[in-house]
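Holo prediction — uridine-5'-diphosphate.
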Amino acid sequence: MKIGVVLGTRPEIIKMAPIVDEIIKRGIDLTFIHTGQHYDKEMSDNFFRDLEIPVPDYNINVGSGYHGKQTALMMRGIEEILMDEKPDIVLVQGDTNAVLAGALVASKLHIAVGHVEAGLRSFDMTMPEEVNRRICDVTSTMYFIPTEQSAINLLADGYSRKNLFITGNTVVDACFRHLEIAKKRGFEEESLADLDIDNMDNILTLTMHRAENVDIKSRVTNIINALNELTDMNIIFPIHPRTKKTLQDFGLFDELNNLNHVHIIKPIGYLDFLQLISKSTLILTDSGGLQEEAITLDIPVLTLRYNTERPETVAVGGNILVGSDKEVILKNANRILNDKEFADKMKNAKNPYGQGDAAIKTVDAIQDFYDNGLLDIKAPEDIMYSFERKMDLVNEDISVKDFEEKNNSLIHMVYDGQKMRFPVDDLKLKGMFVIFDEY
Ligand code: UD1
Ligand code: UDP
């Protein structure tokens, strides 16, 4: 078996690393492709080093640009490589332009696509990420899904449960493995060592890069006005290159940089960053990965957005959406700092993203599909017979698997009277509503 992996940005390197590691450990052939969307050493190369994975075999070097051109250049490069390498499956992770490009090209070449971190939905189609992840889902064969809630999003869109695998999120694998290594190593980045982070209290780690925040002057201004007043905190801000550029364009960079309690530094490596957040009292961010890492490492997080495709973190109480509203940011940040009971409750929120074995589960599922010929994407040769979509209230003591066998059907959705459930094979259906296709 040969697995292709396509990635292009910092978070994809971090979240794909545990899978790349697992592929290599099992001796499976790997075709490893970097689109080059992120290219600064601090946004790319340093992560292969810190996460101890090889650098990709190919770098398409697309660089920055408008979405259409950038995605098109990625597609052209990926197509040439895949036509030559012919992997059995191509894995993409998350919701960036690499995901869109990799998924479209592979599916048109009739190569199976595996979407890692599938099923997330912000329901906000103005976000390029929402467009990318939805299109990727349409082209995919296998879906590696962090939580039951995300799996239900895919069921609601009509995807077959047979192709959905709830694995947890690979960010937990990365966090657990590398935090220990990081702590033994200590801080490497000079800017952090100079700040003497180890002896600093009330650390607020800040990251932001979302277009809907940093490209809109009124929103960044609100956020900066809030930071201005958070003088009881030591704000450490490893700044994303996009944000640095827009703050400079808006003439806001110097104002922020001159505040005594705000320390703007360049983006830092993963081992340094894990240590920094694990020592933080609070994380303020619009990053997707950071919402997950915060809950994994028991750090309260305030998310600078009005929606999130990670609603589980909010539901369990570890994450509060504060938008870019100055007063809401201040109220919640001050409460976390001063109200121990409130902060402890956020810290103790249960991590919805699994145990840190998402990469093992992902590669196990791929191996199983490969062994059973399910990665072969061929035009159908069977005559397709019709099916009827039905709904039923189940009265008998029967599991999902037995129900499907008995009724020659595939179950899509299950409702237990209170919430939707993911139809795993052994789920008992008595008293539940099911929606199923009967063949
Ligand atoms: C991209 C992803 C986003 C992801 C983020 C992770 C898309 C549509 N967006 O957003 O989903 O959350 O990465 O960080 O795929 N730049 C540099 N050096 C670099 C990379 C970027 O200076 O190495 C600057 C350039 O000015 C560039 C800007 O940052 O124009 C934005 O980069 P881009 O990759 O287009 O989007 P991100 O905001 O990084
Ligand atoms: N990160 C890092 N160094 C930094 C800032 C972030 O290593 O200076 C890591 C962080 O731990 C997380 C990931 O980068 O895993 C998040 O990336 P980003 O916020 O760029 O993207 P998103 O997750 O929003 O797609």
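READOUT: The chain has three domains: 2-169+356-371, 187-347, 388-438.
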